[in-house]
Amino acid sequence: MPTINYLTRIEFDFGAIAALGSEIEKMGVKRPLLVTDRGIADAGILQRALDAAAPSRPIVYDGTTENPTEQSLLDCLDIWNDKGCDGVIALGGGSPIDLAKAVALLTSHGGSLANYNVKTGGSAKIGKVSPQIAIPTAAGTGAEVGRACVMSLLDASKMVAVNLNMVADLVICDPELTHSLPPRLTAATGIDALSHGVETCCSSLDNPPAAAIGLEAVRRAARWLPVAVENGADRTARWEMMMASLMGGMCLQKALGGAHAMATPLGELHLHHGTLIGILLPHILRFNKGYADAAYGDLADAMKVPAGVELDDWMTRFVADIGLPTGLSALGVDEALLPAIAEKAAKDHLSATNPRSADASDYLTILRGAMA
User: Tell me: the pLDDT tens digits for 236-291?
Assistant: First the structure.
């Protein structure tokens, strides 16, 4: 079983979760809080993790919502204090992992989550956080090695805290945990992994190692995501997609771009992040055309885009072929909300690393084009 050291320690292979109990003991954690959601519990994955955690007996919080909320964070903090927890385990997709990061942050630093908002400079205050283990059960967000925590506050606004100190101390990637993921969710999470490689390759920041990892994430996701959607029991496809997701998280330090800048405020409408990204990615590729030519050439090669086919057109077909919607109207987005969403996108920190400068009027044009 290979051990990878990049940002943190990663145990990656089929059956890797079996080491959970010994890893908890090695970390010196006596009473871990395990953060997950009801879907993970109902699928039997939670019980598998609890069995693997023995002799440790984690305290379970399974109330994580699809987009994690500050109320869930407050609930977890109450449990932490009441039960005397001293470490946190995230089990699930990006939502439980982000929630666990927030728990680790506030149990070590205090205050409210808004104090650590990257937009106000608060993220620079983040030092070492409480011990964490991250166990992804979907191949998409790469949040297990991501430095960001995205959360909806009590006022329904979204905020992001970003600091390398929030990356988990240990990541356990076991592709077997993704076998029960249904086709639609496999597609929606997988397109997010692909998008991370695409947008980091195009990002205006210069980070060649991260760009190379991002390009490899793209190559794997473009090849294996359709296979995983078609046959969720294909072990090779599940292994490759979890690796693509992990690599998509590894390259995030090169930063993302306009698709994610728009997806953040759209997420306040309680829409699935990966599904949004699938809709927005072709449109930002069209907008950025001519501003990242070298990256576009590398991406076209990695995804085996036929000669003469535009990258944005290929991406639109790819998204449709894996069964995802290609327009915001299919998600029930009200066009009257788009000006406010465009304003927020323009102010998002990820807009600054889009290869082509974009203001609110640009984003509004893109969003309107993405409605159909």
Answer: 999 999 999 999 999 998 999 999 999 999 998 989 999 999 999 999 999 999 99
**Distance (Å, whole) CA 46 – CA 252:** 28
The reply to whether 221 and 140 lie within a common domain is no
Regarding whether 263 and 143 lie in a shared domain, the answer is no
Last residue of a domain, one of 156, 177, 198: 177
Q: Is 259 left (phi over 0), alpha (psi -120 to 50) or beta?
A: alpha
Angle at CA of residue 257, ends 254 and 263, nearest 5°: 125
How would you class 180 by CB atoms within 10 Å of its CB: exposed for 0-12, middle for 13-18, buried for 19 or more?
Answer: middle
Exposed e or buried b for every residue in 182-221, given b needs 16+ CB within 10 A? eeebbbbbbbbbbbbbbbbbbbeeeeeebbebbbbbbbbb
Q: Is the dihedral of CA 347, 161, 89, 215 positive or negative?
A: positive
Number of domains into which the chain is organized: 2
My answer on whether 292 and 160 are in the same domain is no
Map tokens 């029930």 to a residue: 332
Check: CB of residue 307 under 8 Å from CB of residue 297. Answer: no
- 76-108 tens-digit pLDDT: 999 999 999 999 999 999 899 999 999 999 999
Amino acid in position 172: I
The answer, as to whether pTM is greater than 0.85, is: yes
